[in-house]
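Hi support team,

I've been running sequence recovery on a batch of backbones for a student project. Most finish fine, but this one hangs at about 90% for roughly twenty minutes before it completes. I'm not sure whether the input is malformed or the queue is just slow. I've pasted the structure tokens below so you can try to reproduce it. Let me know if you need the job ID as well.

Thanks,
M.K.
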């Protein structure tokens, strides 16, 4: 899903995705990433681009450099539901 927003100072485009899992066949994953590239390329270069969604990432026990993002309770197990502040 793609949403375009216009504010007083800028335009932004939000792209929400749900990626195929690692268990999916390679051709499905290739199609997904080709479509994602096409959407990204269609957004004007002056727009702020926000890409969000479920990329089916798995967090392992080595989180060097991400200590302030991944809560200690969930390292290497289930996703964390705590709020993140940017």
């Amino acid at each position: 899903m793609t949403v375009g927003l216009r504010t007083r100072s800028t335009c932004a485009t939000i792209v929400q995705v749900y990626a195929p899992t690692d268990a999916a066949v390679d051709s499905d994953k290739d199609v997904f990433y080709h479509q994602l590239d096409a959407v990204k390329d269609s957004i004007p270069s002056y727009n702020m681009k926000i890409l969000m969604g479920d990329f089916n990432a798995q967090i392992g026990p080595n989180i060097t450099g991400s200590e302030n993002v991944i809560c200690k309770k969930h390292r290497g197990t289930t996703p964390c539901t705590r709020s993140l502040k940017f």
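--
Follow-up from support: It reproduced on our side and the slowdown came from queue contention, not your input. Residues 2-55 form one domain. No action needed from you.
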